[in-house]
Amino acid sequence: MRREHFDLDVRNLEWVEADDDPEQPLALIEFSGPAEELIDRLTGVDGTPLDSEEIDVAFRLRDPFDDTDDATGVVGVTNRLTGEFIFETNEDAEDVFGFIHAAREYGQSTDAADARYRIRLSLADGKTMTYDKGTFLVYDDAGDLLRSQSLIPSGVEL
What is the bridge-based pairing of β-strands 117-123 and 128-133? Predict the structure, then answer.
């Protein structure tokens, strides 16, 4: 699987700036590659699909943090139990930080710590997988956690 097989589109962010009713931020991911390989990566050792608690989402910057206007990075989804990458996609830092900001505001407005945002993954064969997440970790270009930029529920220690 290649990063080019993934197309990420985000929705439900505008309400924050417009001061409207909260809407759960949604990351729509269209996958155009071979579905079997991705489904294998999204399946646990017991043969059941991984659920929301079994995957982690992170963003790793490619450029120094102080230059986020033009910075890019990689959004990665991993298997929490094995640490193996499930998939990665290239994204602009500004877009990712806007998404995290909306998810943080949604969590504060609705008290939804474990479901601050939703990922909907659509495969070419029509299959869809949905994950509600409360954590989104952000790392700088040197691999150090940017705690203030990350989405970490209160009470969680890393």
Answer: antiparallel
- Residue 51, sorted as left (phi over 0), alpha (psi -120 to 50) or beta, turns out to be beta
CA atoms within 13 A on the CB side of 134: 14
Give the model's pLDDT for residue 68. Answer: 55
The 55-61 sheet, strands edge to edge: 85-92, 72-79, 55-61, 137-139
Note the pLDDT tens digit of each residue in 104-143.
999 999 988 789 999 999 987 788 999 999 999 999 999 9
Residue 59: count other Cβ atoms within 10 Å of its Cβ: 22
Three-state DSSP class for residue 41: helix
Alpha-carbon separation of residue 117 from 81, 91, 143 (angstroms): 21, 17, 24
Two tokens, residue 48: 């059941």
Mapped onto helix, strand or coil, the DSSP state of residue 6 is: strand
On whether the CB atoms of residues 5 and 36 are closer than 8 A, the answer is: no
